[in-house]
Amino acid sequence: MTSFITRLPGGPLTKAAALLVALVVLGAAVWTGVVVLRPDPSCGKGVEERGPDGDKECTGVTDGSYAFAPNLKDVSARIKAENDSIKDKSYVSVAVMLPMAPTQAFEQDKTLHEVQGAYLAQYRANHDSNGKKPAIRLLLANPGRSHTHWRPVAEQLGAMSESGGANLRAVIGFDVSTATTQEALGYLTNERHIPVVGGPITADDFGNSAQRPNAYPGLARVVPTTSDQARALSHFNKEIDPEQTLVVEDIRDGDNYVDALKQAFAERTKGAPRAPEQYRAPGEFHDEGTTANAFDQMVDTICTSAARYIYFAGRPVQLRQFVNELGNRGCTEKKYTVITGSGASTLSSDKLLDWSVFRKGVTLQYAAVAHPDAWTGPGAPSTGGSAAPYRDLAELATSREVGNIGTVELTDSRTITFYDAGLTAVTAMRMRDDGDPVVPALARISDSWLRLHGMGKVEGASGWICLDNYGNPYNKAVSVVELAPDARGRIRFVGLAWPTGRPTQKDCTASRN
Predict the structure, then answer these.
(1) Contacts of 371-375 spanning 24+ positions with Cβ under 8 A
(2) Is 0.90 topped by the overall pTM?
(3) For the segment 175-205, what is each residue's pLDDT rounded down to a tens digit?
C-alpha cells in the first residue's frame, strides 16, 4: 500500500496527494469489503476483551451497564438501576470479584446466585437501614474463567480505590481456593491495601492466623475454614468408627481447598486400615477428563474394603463422577456415605449427577455454610444465630421492590454467603465516630474488622459472624446437609454442627487459646 501510494508512475506524490489517494483506496476497500478493520477490544465501559483467539472473554469492572453472561442480564440491570438511584448521594463502591461467565451450566447457576446475594445486600443497605451513610454502589468485576486475567482487573480495582469518583472501599468474592485466586487476594490486600471480605473461600491458608497475622492485611471471612468444617463434621459424626473409613483424594498440585481437605480428613481418619485411594484431576478441574474411568476401577477396590464412610477430597466435577460410579458398584449389598466439604454445594444443580444413586444405598453428606432450615426449623439453638436474619433475606428475595433478578435460590448457600459477605462489608464501612468523613479511609475499614464480635457481631442469614483478631469467623455454624433421594435438586438439612463441638456462646467472642 505504501509503495503504491507514494510511487505512482510519473514520480512521487506530494503528502497531500498521497493522503487523498490513501483515503480513496481505503474507502473503496471498505465499500467492497476487502479491508477488515481491527476489532475494538472494548466490550463496554470498563470491560475489555482478553485472551487468545478462540478463547476470548470480556473481563473488567462494570456498574451493571454490561452483563458478562446472559443469565446475569436481569440482575445486572437491577444493579445498574440501584447504582443510578444513589449517584447524587455520598456513596462508596463495593466490588464483587469472581468469574462471571463460566462454561458449565451448574457453575453459571452458582455465579448467578452469588451476584444475587450481593445485590440483595446492597438493596438492604440502601433501603432498610434508617438512612445510614454512606450509600452502597455495587460493581461487578470479572477476572475471567479460572481467574486467568486477575491482574489487570485487580489493577483496575486498585485505581478505583484511589479515585474520589469511584470510592472503592471493599472487594467481596473469591469463590474458589486455588493458587491463582490466592495471588489475586494477596495483590489486593498487600499491594493495594483494599479490604476484602471472602466469599466461600475455605482453605486454611487463605486467611490470617497467629502464625501469619499479616498474610492478607484487611481480609475478613464469613464462612468456616476447611479445618473448621472437618472438625464440625467430626463432632457431628462422632460415632463413626475409623476402621470403617477411607479417604479418596486428588493428588493434583496447586489447589488449596483440596489440600486443606486432605489434611483435615487425614486427621479425622486416623486408624483407617487402608491408605487413601488417589486420582489426578485435570489441570482445569472443571473439565471432565478421564477421571470417571479411574473411579470405575477404584470403586471395585473399595468394594473389597471394610469402608462404609468415604471422605472425599476433591472438586465438584470429580465428586459427581465418583458418586455416579459408586452408584454402579458391583457390591450393591453394601451401603456407603460419602462425606466432603462445602465445595459440594454446586452438585445439586449439576444435571450430569445420576440422582438415582441416592436410592441405591449411597448417601452424600457435606458441610454447607448455610441452609434455610438451620435456624427456622425445630430444635435450633438459642445462640450462634437466629431465624430473623434469614427470614428477612427470604422476604426481601421475593419482594417486588428489588425488581426482577431471576429466581433466588437459598438452599445451595451461595446466595446467603454473598449476602452475608456484603452485610459484613457494609457494617464495617458504616462504623463511624462523630466527625469522621462519610467515606472512610481503607485502613479504617480494615481496623473495623476488630470490632465485629460481641455486641458488634454481624447477625448473618447463615448465623452469627464473630470475627477473631485475624478476621476469621469464630466457631461459625456449619449446616450438615445431604442430597435427598426423593426429589432431584433437593438439599436436605440434617443438623447444625460446630467446630468446637457446641454452639457459640452469647458473648460471641473468640477464646484466648
Answers:
(1) 371/411, 371/413, 371/479, 371/481, 371/491, 371/493, 372/410, 372/411, 372/493, 373/493, 374/462, 374/463, 374/477, 374/479, 374/493, 374/496, 375/463
(2) no
(3) 888 889 999 999 999 999 999 999 998 989 8
